């Protein structure tokens, strides 16, 4: 969503941008709205949010809204403390009102058939769910925090992503990510890829950390095997100090794939956390 203006009207017409009409005589002339599914955008832009945005436009302080929240821009440097505070509060208020309005927005049409299964899984696992975006999160038993969510990658296109956070960050400056074509060139010119002596793992992943100390113990054979298995059916698998993230190659047609992927990622994350805790120092017992 952007403020109406000469450029938005001209380029929107030239390049086929579709303005979603909300049916509000004050709001529609003030803003250009584009969305994959107009009815969902209309639900998000409820009467309270529209009044707030119309007031901004009337004061020549239009805002941009997107999937990530609100955005305002002022040209030049601003040294006036009151103006800076007003901008911060205004953007924060817009984000809060968007978050409140999203509670009434249904899932994307392509994901609607999955909603019931996701929410049933969330209830059974003691987690919380949300429709927009379709996601579930919480703590499963005494495990670390778990999130599963649908990531929009294009109009009407989504992928499943699962994140399992460690109870305590590893503190290694660790990044494990899939190998890319240019990684070989980076290594030739001094890239810091730590090899772990595991042909399948080293071929599939780049491991970066300031020091190789403890890497072999934390990323042991069991962990490496689990990551390679995850990578076989995923577009991205990443380990950082904070946790393990996996993005599936596609959004699963069968909702039962969600708990299966969550279980796989939890297993790898748990092994990493156990290994890290076990080797932190003398006298420290295994994680849980």
The CATH class of the largest domain is: Alpha Beta
User: End-to-end span in angstroms?
Assistant: 48 Å
Query: Number of helical runs?
Result: 10
CATH architecture of the largest domain: 2-Layer Sandwich
Biggest beta sheet summary: 8 strands, antiparallel
Structural class: alpha+beta
Overall helicity: 25-40%
Number of individual domains: 2
Q: How large is the share of residues in beta strands?
A: 15-25%
Unreliable parts: 10-17, 185-191, 282-288
**Physical arrangement of strands within the biggest beta sheet:** 5-6-7-8-12-11-9-10
CATH topology of the largest domain: Yope Regulator, Chain: A
Rg over C-alpha atoms, rounded to the nearest angstrom: 23 Å
Task: Please write the string of helix (H) and strand (E) elements.
Answer: EHEHHEEHHEEEEEHHEHHEEH
Question: Average pLDDT, to the nearest integer?
Answer: 86
Large-scale geometry: globular
Report the strand count. 12
Please, could you describe this protein's structure?
The protein is of the alpha+beta class and 288 residues long. It has 2 domains: 101 residues, no CATH class; 167 residues, Yope Regulator, Chain: A (2-Layer Sandwich), CATH 3.30.1460. Helix content is 38%, strand content 20%. It contains 10 helices and 12 strands. It has an 8-stranded antiparallel beta sheet with strand order 5-6-7-8-12-11-9-10. The protein has a two-stranded antiparallel sheet with strand order 1-2. Strands 3-4 form a two-stranded antiparallel ribbon. Strand 5 and strand 6 form a beta hairpin. Helix 3 packs antiparallel against helix 4. The C terminus is likely disordered.
């Amino acid at each position: 969503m952007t403020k109406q203006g000469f450029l938005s009207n001209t380029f929107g017409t030239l390049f086929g941008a579709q303005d979603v009409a909300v049916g509000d005589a004050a709001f529609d002339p003030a803003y250009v709205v584009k969305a994959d599914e107009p009815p969902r955008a209309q639900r998000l832009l409820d009467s309270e949010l529209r009044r707030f945005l119309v007031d901004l436009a009337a004061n020549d302080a239009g805002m941009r809204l997107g999937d990530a929240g609100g955005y305002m821009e002022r040209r030049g440097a601003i040294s006036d403390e009151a103006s800076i505070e007003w901008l911060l509060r205004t953007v924060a208020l817009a984000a809060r009102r968007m978050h409140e309005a999203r509670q009434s927005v249904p899932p994307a049409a392509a994901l609607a058939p999955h909603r019931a299964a996701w929410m049933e899984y969330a209830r059974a696992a003691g987690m919380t769910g949300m429709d927009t975006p379709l996601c579930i999160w919480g703590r499963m038993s005494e495990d670390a925090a778990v999130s599963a969510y649908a990531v929009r990658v294009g109009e009407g296109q989504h992928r499943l992503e699962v994140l399992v956070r460690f109870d305590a960050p590893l503190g290694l400056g660790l990044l494990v990510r899939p190998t890319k074509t240019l990684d070989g060139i980076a290594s030739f010119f001094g890239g810091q890829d730590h090899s772990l002596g595991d042909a399948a793992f080293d071929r599939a992943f780049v491991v970066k950390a300031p020091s190789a100390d403890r890497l072999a113990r934390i990323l042991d054979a069991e962990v490496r095997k689990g990551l390679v298995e995850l990578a076989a059916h995923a577009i991205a698998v990443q380990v950082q100090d904070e946790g393990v993230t996996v993005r599936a190659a596609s959004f699963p047609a069968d909702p039962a794939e969600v708990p299966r992927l969550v279980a796989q990622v939890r297993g790898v994350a748990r092994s990493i956390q156990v290994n890290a805790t076990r080797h932190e120092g003398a006298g420290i017992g295994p994680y849980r």
